Amino acid sequence: MPATLFTNARIIDPAAGTDRIGQLRVQSGKVVEVSYDAAIDPSNAEILDAKGKCLAPGIVDIGVKVCEPGERHKESFRSAAAAAAAGGITTIVTRPDTNPSIDTPEALEFQTRRAQDAAPIRVAPMAALTKERAGREMTEIGFLQDAGAVAFTDCDHVVQNTKVFSRALTYARSLGALVMAHVQEPGLSAGAAVTSGKFASLRGLPGVTAMAERMALDRDIALLEMTGAAYHADQITTARALPALERAKSNGLNISAGVSIHHLTLNELDVADYRTFFKVKPPLRSEEDRCAVVEALASGLIDTLSSMHTPQDEESKRLPFEEAASGAVGLETLLPASMRLIHAGDLTLPQLFAALSMRPAKRLGLKGGRLAVGSVADLILFDPEAPFVLDRTKLSSKSKNTPFDGARVQGRMLGTWVGGARIYGGDT
Amino acid sequence: MAPLKHLLGIEPLHPTQITEILDLSERYVTLNRAVHKHNDALAGLTQINMFFENSTRTQASFELAGKRLGADVMNMAMQASSVKKGETLIDTAVTLNAMHPDLLVVRHPHSGAVDLLAQKVNCAVLNAGDGRHEHPTQALLDALTIRRAKGRLHRLTIAICGDIAHSRVARSNIMLLGKMENRVRLVGPPTLMPSGIEHFGVEVVENMEEGLKDADVVMMLRLQKERMDGGFIPSEREYYHRFGLDSAKLKHAKPDAIVMHPGPMNRGVEIDGEIADDLNRSVIQEQVEMGVAVRMAAMDLLMQTRRASMKPQGVMV
Fold this sequence. Notes:
heterodimer; A: 428 residues; alpha/beta; TIM Barrel; 8-stranded mixed beta sheet; 5-stranded parallel beta sheet; 13 helices; 30% helix; globular; B: 317 residues; 4-stranded parallel beta sheet; 11 helices; 9 strands
């Protein structure tokens, strides 16, 4: 592969916290030189003039649902990879809530094979924490780790039996495995379609109190104190959960937390007249909660930002709100939606890419997420200003259930490179 | 103001639209009391009643209203139909739409289902109750009953008592009575109050005597059987003791206060049988009568809009 020299690039380096015009040389799939002052020797390199556009480490998206095995009509590895590449995502960290669940090494090997055949991006699989995600018996965490699982989670199933969960955490700790959990107290959240409050009552929809998130997080933090396991809360979306998270971190627990782009850029009122594309799990929150969570992401209290990509076909969404499936696709909309936070002045670009790329990679021990010399050349080039109207029919995902259809957004992808090879874009 | 295309709830209505419906209803009250109870306002039009949830009384009221206006009325018991075979709501709607109905009267157990259906058909849709969202004709018939009994529909103190959380009747009434500038008080145990109720512009009272104090109107709500056993309240008898309307509690209301109930009643649970039958206090029978008139008025207005929007077609010979 020939070397590539990016010139006149606005380099976003989350590790250094810098956003400066410079040059970056990629060779043999790695970043070999970064310079902000002196020009880099262009010999034997294809020169790519970035024209002042942003060059950043590719996004590492934790919690992507690819519907293989089980529901390939909703999303296959091929369509998910195309969507990811178009969205600036170079690594997808997949969820095991397929049908059947990824809860045995055999199932994981099947999935990995499918991913390798179809996807030019990196795929890092997560496996189920308990068999069939049923919360009764732990999976073969060791074997699954050997087969490539980077973390263990039952996704939106909360392990209700505290004894089962504490044993799974203890066992995972002995293997250094990361456990990711959904933080919703199951009793309170049973049957809920929205967050309780005025809006829920006006629409007559069953709601769950925002407190359900804090209760679940409090329980899990107590279990971490007992077990010492490494833990990641998949989505922290309410103001009331933040002090607990902060205390747990300052007490030295091995804990991190993520949030989805939907909870950062939308609120409960967006559901409006029962728009089911805005039904996600946990449900969208109040504006106060949204603002608090944005602030927590900026400060680094919340570590990671992801798409929580959840494809659903039209049939499962064109139903009365309570009956409709939860989830939204997000691979292609993660970056442009994130730009709303940039343009609103809530975050800087280095802060954003710390949450999108650097911290997820670091937390899961993956390649990528950095621009330092010697790191893999998983890079994206994008124009943070370019405006467009999002059209859901143009998404590469097989499912089109985006809440951003028709939204005016800024931030157009120009190119995506994985290991130095270009997998998206071409004219720039 | 845009003419009324659908009647999906009280929320989108303007006070003048509410008054317009009530004024027209008065004319239908007169018609319904006459010997000849018929006009041709809906002649030639097709009305389909789709009830995805059982209701004898409301369905009968809509059927009678349609027939008195001369519409061709069809009742579909949706629970026994293709819904059971797995057909989705939208497929059912599209199928019926192909038969060119002019008006669909829909009741559904899920909030928002009627809105969804209205987006998929090109006839008028009247919400006959969706989940715990809205039941607009119930609020309108309650308003008409109040207006006739009290001579006005503003500056009244109205206590709505019981299971507010699960009641679409309460939602629509809170909305309508608020729009008409009344003082609305919600009375009931906190487990039966919806979340965020403090933002609704109503008073919330957890004690029946206090809640009924100086009320002009006492509106009781039905307590569903499945909510009586320990989930939301400890027991039927404790509920009746604390929140059931009896003559002792009613003494706290104004001497000329009227008592309302959307029916069907649980005598001895939320209301004492004697009060329900006391013709000096109870207007429960009037509510049923007003129901037919209000539904005739609402359907008449919806069909006026529809006739105006449809281009005259050539007559097939």
